[in-house]
Design goal:
six-stranded mixed sheet; 2 domains; 368 residues; nine-stranded mixed sheet; FAD/NAD(P)-binding domain; alpha+beta; D-Amino Acid Oxidase, Chain A, domain 2; 10 helices
Length: 368
């Protein structure tokens, strides 16, 4: 496919889901720099759907994505969600953060410190003042989601080429020519879904950047001691100011320091000191014994200055479409952003409200 209708740069969940949707109406080619799809942020996600996570625009994207994740027709044979719940806990200093999270939310229950300990017995009662419980938070089967979109894309004739790092993007007439070390393709539309590398791709194409900043987020897996029962049924637990969070994961406990250290785009690894400090914060809040982790890793969460995703055509470059800046919301918002990308790139009317489409448009950066 040397002259597709649309070239998608980036084979994470954003690029793959958008490509799968657009392939209903167009010939789509995905170029992925790594040997496999979903290698960076997608494959290192905490894999949780939280309806009230993020600002008002993100909550609208969450709401639009949830029905697809629950009934993924054409993507998977059964729901990609499973019950989990989310528990936010606060000490005296974190009450304002707890209040801010609840503002504008739905399906959130205010609970007492005693009720929080009943839900998660390892919490130290004397450290707690209040909590919020969101029963509707659910685990996402990220691998089934990604693989389902890949199957859908290929069934519609779309193609994915891995090991294809883009080295040049050149405007030629009404088309874009995208070059890798072994491939040269042209198309009238390029979708920039390159994750942490999205500003680099834009700069390569001579397009105004959006000020994307990648941040490192680390996590460990730790064995649950045999004398602790029922851990697999715990909700995701997090401090109200997000200084740590934890959730059951395949018989172990995933613990994150909730770090957010600015870094350049790269294949990121955890920092031992950051992990140690985060585990100490978790240990101060719980009675869970900290031992040697069985596994540790880090991923990149890339944000714009307003911490809202970017989806839409660049105002300064015809046919150059932004799909970036999803931060820590990329997996759970992928169905909504894929549908929007499909609509805008294929001449359809978006299902999202106009104010949401405007809020995530790259034109907001051109306007300052």
């Amino acid at each position: 496919m040397t002259s597709p209708d649309i070239i998608v740069i980036g084979g994470g969940i954003a690029g793959i889901s958008a490509a799968a949707m657009m392939s209903e109406d167009a010939e789509v080619l995905v170029l992925e720099r790594e040997p496999q799809t979903g290698y960076h942020s997608t494959g290192r996600s905490a894999a949780t759907f939280i309806r009230n996570y993020g600002n008002a625009t993100l909550r609208a994207l969450n709401a639009a994505s949830e029905p697809v994740l629950a009934q993924p027709d054409g993507i998977a044979e059964s729901s990609l969600l499973s019950p989990r719940g989310e528990l936010l806990v606060a000490n005296e200093e974190e009450l304002d953060a707890l209040k801010a999270y609840a503002a504008g939310g739905s399906g959130i229950d205010h609970i007492t410190a005693d009720e929080a300990v009943q839900l998660v017995p390892i919490l130290k009662r004397d450290r707690l003042v209040a909590g919020l419980y969101e029963e509707s938070a659910q685990d996402i089967d990220v691998d089934r989601l990604l693989q389902g979109y890949i199957r859908l894309l290929r069934s519609r004739g779309g193609q994915i080429v891995t090991n294809s790092e883009v080295v040049a993007i050149i405007r030629e007439g009404n088309d874009w020519r995208v070059e890798t070390k072994g491939l040269s393709v042209t198309a009238p539309v390029v979708v920039n879904a390159a994750g942490a590398w999205a500003d680099i791709i834009a700069n390569m194409a001579g397009v105004q950047k959006i000020g994307l900043q990648p941040f490192r987020r680390s996590a460990v897996l730790m064995a649950v001691p045999s004398d602790i029962s029922g851990a697999e049924k715990w909700p995701l637990i997090a401090s109200a100011e997000e200084t740590w969070y934890a959730k059951p994961d395949a018989g172990k406990l995933l613990i994150s320091p909730a770090d957010e250290d600015p870094v350049d785009p790269h294949d990121v690894w955890p920092d031992d000191m950051v992990l140690a400090e985060g585990l100490h914060r978790f240990e101060e809040a719980t009675n869970f014994p900290i031992t040697r982790p069985t596994h540790s890793w880090a991923g990149l969460r890339s944000f714009t200055s307003d911490r809202t995703p970017v989806a839409g055509f660049a105002p300064d470059a015809p046919g150059f479409f932004w799909l970036a800046g999803q931060g820590g919301y990329g997996v759970q918002t992928s169905p909504a952003l894929a549908a929007l990308t499909h609509a805008l790139c294929c001449g359809k009317s978006p299902a999202l409200a106009t104010e949401v489409v405007t809020a995530i448009s790259p034109a907001r950066f051109a306007l300052g």
